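Reviewer comment 2.1 asked that we show a complete input and output for one of the modelled complexes. We chose the iron/sulfur cluster case, as it is the one discussed in the main text.
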Amino acid sequence: MSSGPRNENVGKNGQDTPTELGSYFISNYPPFSAWDRDDLSPARDAIESHPSVDTPLGLYLHIPFCRKRCKFCYFRVYTDKNASEVERYVDGLAREVELYSDKPVLQGRPFRFAYFGGGTPSFLSEKQLRSLVEKLRRSVDWDDAEEVTFECEPGTLSQKKLEAIREIGVTRLSLGVENLSDAILEENGRAHRSAEVFRTYAWAKEMGFPQINVDLIAGMVGETDENWRDTVERTLELSPDSLTIYQMELPYNAVYAADLKEGSLRVADWQTKRRWVRQAFEMFESKGYSVSSAYALVKNADTRFVYRDALWRGADMLGTGVASFSHIGGVHYQNLDREDQYLAALDAGELPLGRALSVTKDQRLIRELILQLKLGRIQPDYFSNKFGVSIMERFRDPLDALRESGYAEYDEREVRLTREGLLRVDALLPRFFEPEHRGVRYT
Ligand code: SF4
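Response of the prediction step:
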């Protein structure tokens, strides 16, 4: 078994540690810190090449604006832009998509999924949203997409804006609820309040979005057993098609980081956060929901999350917008992460590339393995068919260690995480990394 990773949240003696500064959530491999700002040629080559048309392709559109900065947030978001600055960004985003539309990488490959993410896509006014979509549609479309997701902050929605969101083809509306206590929302710097959640949820139901997802966070500052149970119960009453629950993390550049360093912040430890997620899983399961990943439940077992499942199986994704991440033809890259630089590149007629990494076949195997482990089960046959590698031999030591710890069980057909394993899955993944990437700061 490999040595414990930096973000392992179970101490060496099996004791739980408090929530410390840093990100626990693993969303990619190799870690972003390994990506190269000096050599962008792998990204340029991938964009100019014709990858297999059998590899699904998705489109991600990043809207980096929010009404207020949440105190736990580490994303680069802008809370001070006026309407004309937002419109300038929206024009830049449409220009970036237009630049891509002639590139070989897009030819003959309809988007199988699209995702409006942020930041807060619903920060855009109805007019700005319609204008963005009209400009995007001059060069691309998502008419053949199986799923179009749109992230919303409840307090930014009106009925007219929701209608516009429905009309642009959104199939999966994701509401960032996080908690239903107004005191906790306020303490954590969220812009919305619970009344806005219930109001917008009713509108969205009435408009017939095929899938409504609710996001919660277990362990926000001020969270208590009583409050968490109340939040979960009232979310259950909404009966969302899917529910996503994250465990609170406190990254280095969050507003709360200074308070945590000073010792003035009281935040639940990892054991408590896992207990809360377990409790929510059990409450939803008792009403017929099924757990579909370490962070998600679905009301109907056949409800899919195409974006997640495609990405975790190695789909290509074109990430557009400031600081967005792309995965194309075995290359990872990220756009420039400052808005002024991003827009300046587009003004010069160039793609706004920031850093890139050509990923080896073994790294692609590790990436898919760790991401699919978050689903709670992986099939060795998938990996031998795709990569020609027996994961049971290649990863014998870490798999045995997980089984000995009670976090996994397996036979030749399937590796399954136990509930305890699933609840701490991100802390278990670095043991599958190449040695040089274990223990690095993830972001
Ligand atoms: S709404 Fe999301 S992106 Fe915006 S500040 Fe809050 S956590 Fe960050």
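The chain is about 35% helix and 15% strand. We note this here for comparison with the apo prediction described in Section 3.2.
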